[in-house]
Design goal:
Elements lengths: L28 H10 L8 H10 L1 E5 L2 E3 L9 E7 L2 E6 L5 E7 L4 E3 L2 H4 L6 E4 L3 E7 H10 L1 H27 L2 H10 L10 E3 L4 H7 L4 H13 L3 E4 L2 E4 L2 H8 L9
Antiparallel strand pairs: 1-8, 2-7, 3-6, 3-8, 4-5, 4-7, 9-11, 10-11
Helix pairs in contact: 4-5, 6-8, 6-9, 7-8
């Protein structure tokens, strides 16, 4: 039988911490429930399970800036972003965060620390005010014993994170800088009349860090994609002009494109 680990003792970190607001119920209950229901992959959770998870969910507000650890006294939990964005990566030599992904509303910020009984294992910076929801691991396990769909959903969430890590390592090892940018663009949500417009969610220096390239290199890659007729760029808006060519440059036929 699985049991949740005890809360970590905590270790002091040398980086400044974003200030935590008091825990409480979600500020937008309906939105929080929708994000919670969609955070467990393709399963459909029962209303009873959602009610129970929602009742135990505690929300914490964070201002912009680095985040060093979970709030004091928080039980081992899975952490879900409800509002704002968090840049996640590894700690650099100077204590800053070297970004490798951006966590958006409805995505899990941390799944590992609750199982390991440690502090968060990744370095993080809130790029905007953030509301995080903590779901105690003990509650998740209790509910999963009674609801097989939740157990499947927890497995899918962990498997999806493992796939992201595996794909990231593969792409760094096998793709050049232009291919990595093309693939990153294909994975962004699109809007517009034909679903061809992408609103860049962060500054280009943040994108460069995620793609492990210099900002000047990223700028050259954007210009090259424009020259090739794949995209147009106007400020923070990217318009895809030739989707087939962009897919070809990404080097993958089975690109996971957001719906």
């Amino acid at each position: 039988m699985l049991h949740a680990p005890s809360a970590p003792a905590g270790s002091p970190l040398g980086r400044p911490r974003a200030r935590w607001a008091p825990a409480g119920a979600p500020p937008r209950q309906a939105l929080a429930r929708t994000l919670l229901a969609g955070a467990f992959g393709r399963v459909t959770l029962s209303h009873a399970t959602l009610d129970r998870l929602e009742a135990q969910m505690r929300c914490h507000g964070l201002e912009r800036g680095p985040v060093a650890r979970a709030p004091a006294g928080a039980p081992p939990s899975w952490w879900l972003v409800l509002e704002g964005r968090i840049a996640v990566g590894r700690a650099g030599a100077d204590g800053s965060t070297v970004e490798n992904r951006m966590v958006e509303p409805g995505q899990w910020f941390d799944l590992a620390s609750a199982w390991l009984g440690t502090e968060w294992i990744e370095s993080a910076v809130c790029v905007a005010p953030v509301i995080l929801a903590a779901l105690p691991l003990a509650t998740l396990l209790d509910c999963a014993r009674e609801d097989e769909q939740l157990m499947r959903g927890m497995g899918q969430a962990m498997a999806e994170r493992l796939r992201e890590l595996t794909e990231g390592r593969h792409e760094l090892a096998t793709k050049d800088v232009l291919s990595r940018l093309a693939l990153w663009l294909l994975r962004q949500p699109r809007d517009g009349d034909a679903g061809a417009s992408i609103r860049l969610p962060v500054q280009k220096r943040s994108i460069a860090r995620q793609l492990v390239m210099a900002q000047a290199t990223l700028s050259r890659c954007f210009r090259r994609l424009v020259e090739l007729g794949c995209i147009d760029v106007a400020g923070y808006t990217v318009t895809i002009r030739d989707l087939a060519k962009l897919r070809m440059l990404a080097g993958e036929d089975g690109v996971r494109v957001p719906a």
